[in-house]
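## retry 2 of 3
previous attempt timed out at serialization; input unchanged, resubmitting
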Amino acid sequence: MDQYFAEEAILSMTSHLIFIVITWRVLLAVNFDAFFRKNKVFEARVLLIFITIALGTTVSNFFLDFIGWSNSLVYLF
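## retry succeeded, writing output
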């Protein structure tokens, strides 16, 4: 039972990190200069990091939920 929780924890952490990196790479391709005031580079980067974490974690949670749901389909039949 403990091994199951350990495997789930490793899968969750890995999934979150992968999707956060993917989201970061995607958001770097978007030009956000028009949304921020001049000389507010630090604040813009912090906001971009927060948006990256929020989006990456949300997508990762959906991915992990979807895997859990598909594993539960076995009990349907």
